[in-house]
């Protein structure tokens, strides 16, 4: 499966994660439980997938520790801000802001990794980011959605972008299989989530975490697909396609969160721009 298809799959699953997270937080706005349960469940999913690929690619576990360190940044710290963003401003709008990651990621890749620039890649990235800006500028956002969530989402964008470039740098020439690398990263992320949010989990039980297990499944599978994509393609190709999770966040929100998300014109226009950018990147990869 090519880097383009894997990146698109990762985007779809990440959009599903955001919507599932929003559904859980609507029932009980418990950020510590939601964060820890999502990341730990994702870690378990990645472990299973890594075990499945081990007979074909070996493990190389002793070389995987740099990926665990990268995972402390994202999803470790980043997922905390994602959960806060989804709680405060909803799934669709959080996904839109997260879709602006290509602007930061591609800039870092061009400057520090020496990746080649081309007009289609840059135009596609600009279109995707423009879609995010259009959605973020809406004025008819429901009152129960707090604009501070947009700030939380942008912090996550910066962490995602740094992670993307570190991941690509580690992946080039690495003998660690993508599934093992993803599991290591999620393991590092789970450790950070538990360390930061663990003290706030007193009084919670397993029943409180159960709604977020499916969310973790989407997240873990998305993460493995993300790593597989970065092992096959450059940041300037993969990152803009990952940003189409904005589209999936909007589409799934319309289907499942219509009343609470309230999708308006700017959301539709922004989604169209994101689709156009993703198509351009895929056509001229």
List strands and helices in order, with pairings:
Elements (H helix, E strand, L loop, with lengths): L2 H25 L3 H27 L7 H25 L1 H8 L2 H12 L6 H18 L11 H24 L6 H20 L8 H4 L3 H20 L2 H8 L2 H12 L1 H4 L3 H19 L2
Helix pairs in contact: 1-3, 1-4, 1-10, 1-11, 1-12, 2-3, 2-8, 2-10, 3-4, 3-7, 3-8, 4-6, 4-7, 4-12, 5-6, 5-7, 5-11, 6-14, 8-10
Explain what you see.
- The chain starts with a helix and ends with a helix.
- It has 14 helices and no strands.
- The model has no long low-confidence stretch (mean pLDDT 83).
- 79% of the residues lie in helices and 0% in strands.
- By secondary structure, the protein is an all-alpha fold.
- Helix 2 (31-57) packs antiparallel against helix 8 (178-197) and helix 3 runs antiparallel to helix 7.
- It has one domain (3-283).
Q: Radius of gyration over alpha carbons?
A: 18 Å
What's the helix count?
14
Low-pLDDT segments: none
Q: Hey, roughly how much beta strand do the residues contain?
A: under 5%
Q: Structural class, from helix and strand content? A: mainly alpha
Listing every helix as H and every strand as E from the N terminus to the C terminus, the arrangement reads: HHHHHHHHHHHHHH
> How far is the N terminus from the C terminus?
15 Å
Question: How would you sum up the global shape?
Answer: globular
Domain count: the total is 1
Strand elements, count = 0
Helix content: over 70%
Average pLDDT number: 83
> Main beta sheet, described?
none
């Amino acid at each position: 499966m090519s880097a383009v298809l894997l990146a698109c799959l990762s985007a779809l699953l990440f959009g599903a994660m955001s919507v599932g997270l929003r559904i859980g937080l609507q029932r009980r706005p418990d950020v510590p439980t939601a964060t820890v349960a999502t990341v730990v469940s994702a870690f378990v999913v990645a472990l299973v997938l890594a075990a499945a690929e081990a007979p074909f690619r070996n493990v190389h576990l002793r070389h995987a520790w740099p990926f665990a360190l990268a995972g402390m940044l994202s999803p470790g710290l980043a997922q905390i801000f994602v959960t806060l963003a989804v709680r405060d401003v909803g799934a669709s709008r959080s996904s839109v802001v997260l879709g602006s990651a290509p602007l930061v990621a591609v800039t870092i890749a061009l400057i520090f990794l020496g990746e080649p620039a081309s007009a289609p890649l840059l135009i596609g990235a600009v279109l995707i980011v423009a879609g995010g800006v259009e959605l973020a500028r809406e004025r008819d956002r429901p009152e129960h959605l707090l604009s501070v969530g947009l700030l939380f989402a942008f912090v996550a964008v910066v962490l995602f972008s740094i992670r993307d470039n570190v991941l690509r740098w580690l992946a080039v020439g690495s003998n660690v299989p993508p599934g093992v690398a993803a599991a290591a990263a999620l393991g590092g992320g789970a450790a950070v989530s538990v360390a930061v949010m663990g003290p706030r989990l007193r009084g919670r039980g397993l029943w409180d975490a159960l709604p977020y297990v499916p969310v973790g499944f989407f997240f873990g599978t998305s993460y493995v697909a993300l790593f597989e994509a970065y092992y096959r393609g450059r940041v300037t190709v993969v990152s803009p396609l990952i940003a189409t999770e904005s589209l999936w966040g909007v589409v799934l929100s319309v289907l499942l969160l219509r009343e609470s998300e309230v999708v308006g014109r700017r959301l539709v226009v922004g989604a169209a721009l994101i689709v156009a950018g993703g198509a351009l990147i895929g056509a001229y990869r």
